[in-house]
Design brief:
The complex is a heterodimer of chains A (413) and B (106). Chain A has eleven helices and 27 strands. With 413 residues, chain A is of the alpha/beta class. The radius of gyration of chain A is 22 Å and the shape is globular. Chain B is 17% helix and 20% strand. The N and C termini of chain B lie far apart (31 Å). The chains are: A alpha/beta (413), B alpha+beta (106).
Chain lengths: 413, 106
């Protein structure tokens, strides 16, 4: 199908990826029908602040919205919420939504996101046990986040640790249970994980590392968490932050190729050329990593997918893919991450952790593949630009604090 | 409500009603002013909301903080009046503010 023949676009999933796609198609001059279908009642909004400023009560919902709700009508984007798409008929290019209504498409964008993993434990449905993904989750949680309440976070990933940081700042009693022997095991090096462990400990968070939660205790509401070794910790609130699984049900039912996420090419096209997949639900070749296929869960990846799809559908020059980036805010620490650290064989530090301002540069051979920068925006951006342009610098050079990062960037080859 | 004027690199002007308490970036994004990407939503994590503050307004907008300045060092075509618009909070005092947008955010 050529671009000129695409008159009707359906986007399933009204998160950041879906919302940005609708917006960018209009910006690029698409004048056909756009239907954006979302399961949540709210128009597209930013998720990252949910576990940060929003949870703390510092940011109202209207500031999380990607665009004011009125803009969808103004731009003739049909926003269907809360509506669940239940079936994709590829042969006839139709989407069926709950209630039976069918909508036709020329191009379909799957931006179905991911679902938080539920704790596979007795008691996981008790009042006081929370998953953490949506604004509704944060809204339900916030009134319980009162000083003195006992919170147990299960899972020491970024979401769990961000929630723990907010909770400490609000005066809760916080314990984090992690089955691995260190926090952030999937997402950073032991060194940087150790830094965050120390910081949270200093802030009064208790950790049970290598702990195996066995049951959420309580009659009609949570009273504690039982561990496999027989121990028990009291709790008023339990937050599960044990990762997400990509939402691929529709794609599976209609027979698209799946590998962790919905598999796409670099243009975000799935195994059906009329269907694209973007954001948390999709696996795509990574331009800066020898086209290794990866599924990223990030704002950057959501926005990137939207840009790629809009350019492809509108037959514009291909969007230049940026190196992946992420961030996390905990206490007064701003962690900025560029690149993908998996497979590194060496890490070099610029600055010292004790100053709470340092950058960890990850290398594979002599190639710089990622950076974790804590309160070091210059190091983050400099390294990101090097990764972007596939340049590198030897570890002993990049860690030389007598040379400003900008100068180092200029000398990278 | 305070008004902020955004002037695209090609000269096109957008006058936006910008509620006090929001940032100059947010008001632009919510009204789809082209040329401010703001991919991170205002977390000072992406440096894609670079603007030039009209010199008359510099005293009122104040100066870039240290984190912001470190990010700006890596933006394209940085001038002495460069700011990240996610770090400028709108107030009644800034009613009439004029900012110009760079050629590109990337």
């Amino acid at each position: 199908m050529t671009t000129g023949e695409i008159k009707r676009i359906i986007i399933i999933g009204a998160g950041q990826a879906g919302g940005e796609t609708a917006q960018r198609l209009r910006q690029a001059g698409f004048d056909g029908d756009i239907t954006l279908i979302g399961e949540e009642p709210t128009p597209p909004y930013q998720r990252p602040p949910l576990s940060k400023a929003y949870l703390k009560g510092e940011l109202p919902m209207d500031r999380l919205l990607l665009r004011p709700s009125s803009m969808y009508a103004e731009e003739q984007i049909a926003l269907l919420t809360p509506v669940k798409a239940v079936w994709v008929d590829r042969a006839n290019r139709k989407v069926r939504v709950e209630g039976g209504r069918e909508l036709s498409y020329d191009a379909l964008v799957l931006a179905t996101g991911a679902r938080p993993r539920k704790l596979p434990l007795v008691g996981a449905d008790l009042d006081g046990a929370f998953l953490f993904r949506t604004a509704a989750d944060a809204d339900a949680l916030r009134p319980r986040m009162v000083a003195g309440a006992k919170l147990i976070v299960i899972g020491a990933g970024y979401i769990g640790l961000e929630a723990a940081a907010v909770a400490r700042q609000l005066g809760l009693d916080v314990t984090v249970i992690e089955t691995a022997v260190r926090p952030l095991a999937r997402v950073t090096s032991p060194e940087v994980a150790g830094f965050f462990l120390d910081e949270h400990t200093r802030q009064g968070v208790r950790f049970v590392l290598g702990g195996q939660p066995a049951i959420i205790k309580g009659q009609d509401r949570v009273t504690g968490v039982g561990l496999a070794d027989g121990g028990e910790l009291p709790a008023d609130i339990v937050i599960a932050g044990i990762g997400v699984t990509p939402e691929i049900t529709l794609a599976q039912h209609c027979g698209l190729t799946i590998d962790n996420g919905i598999v796409t090419d670099a243009q975000c096209r799935t195994s059906d050329p009329n269907i694209f997949a973007i954001g948390d639900c999709a696996s795509r070749p990574m331009a800066h990593y020898d086209d290794r296929v990866a599924r990223l869960e990030s704002v950057h990846n959501a926005v990137e997918g939207a840009k790629i799809v809009a350019a492809t559908i509108m037959d514009k020059p291909a969007h230049t893919v940026e190196a992946p980036w992420f961030w996390s805010d905990q206490y007064d620490l701003k962690l900025q991450i560029a690149g993908l650290f998996q497979g590194y064989d060496h890490v070099a530090f610029r600055g010292v952790m004790a100053d709470r301002s340092f950058a960890a540069f990850y290398y594979k051979g002599d190639r710089l593949i990622a950076v974790d920068a804590v309160n070091r925006p210059g190091e983050y951006l400099g390294a990101k630009m090097m990764i972007q342009s596939k340049r590198t610098l030897p570890p002993d050079v990049i860690t030389d604090e007598s040379r400003p990062m900008k100068e180092l960037l200029a000398s990278a080859r | 409500m305070p008004k902020v004027t955004y002037i695209e690199h090609n000269g096109k002007e957008h006058v936006i009603d910008a509620p006090a308490g929001q940032t100059v970036m947010e008001a632009a994004v919510k009204h789809a002013v082209p040329g401010i990407d703001a991919d991170c939503g205002g977390a000072c994590a992406c440096a894609t909301c670079h603007v030039y503050v009209d010199p008359e307004w510099l005293a009122k907008t104040g100066e870039a903080g240290s984190m912001e300045q470190s990010m700006l060092d890596f933006a394209n075509d940085v001038e002495t009046n460069s700011r990240l618009s996610c770090q400028i909070k709108i107030s009644a005092e800034l009613d009439g503010l004029v900012v110009r947008l760079p050629k590109s955010q990337h």
